[in-house]
Amino acid sequence: MRKSKKPQSLLRNNFNFPAFRGLPDEPENEIDLRYYDDGPFGFEPSQHWCFLGEIVDTIGLVRVLLRVKDKDGEVITIGLYTGDRGQALAPHIKIGHTVAVLYGEQHGFLDMSVGIRVEVASNIKIIPCSLEQLLKASDDVASLRKGKPRRCGSCGKDENASDNTHLRLCSRCRHTSYCGEDCQKKAWVEGHKVDCKALVGVQWFTAKNWRTFHDWFSF
Ligand SMILES: [Zn+2]
Ligand SMILES: [Zn+2]
Fold this sequence. Notes:
By secondary structure, the chain is α+β, with helices and mostly antiparallel strands. The protein is built from 2 helices and 11 strands; from the N terminus they run βββββββββαββα.
């Protein structure tokens, strides 16, 4: 059941998780002071950021080139300019799945399309669920953190019920809990199978502090 008021959710924050037009410009133009601080060792990021987009097409022949749709619905290109031209990533590419790119910048490609040029292989990863599912998982994690009593993810019975309901966590996502095996099996076929992958995918993000920069994150 969705509450009318949306919980504050990490991946919906457009500062650490901007759409393409919110990304900094490439530094050869001008340093974007929303993202960088001028420190004793030169410019350093002032916080972390990650672009998220859903794969709508894959167009590369010589190297991996993806067309992805960002949070605002804009379709841009992600080009793999890594040593292996994206070959390690290739088996994970699937239309409808989500691409995450750390520290991406707005780039104009030679063919006049715009997008992100990825040069560090550990800055990109594919998460096996849609962008919408990933954002929903982020909401789910945020609402659990508010300390509401846990409920069975299928029948809704809560852990404080008078019959001493004992809820146990899904062993994969360790997020959703169930009052028993029947409820767990029912929920799995009715949709947790998909939600579970999104919840596992989102945990890498929700376990980190995106507000302060100490060292670069990598996937
Ligand atoms: Zn139940
Ligand atoms: Zn699960």
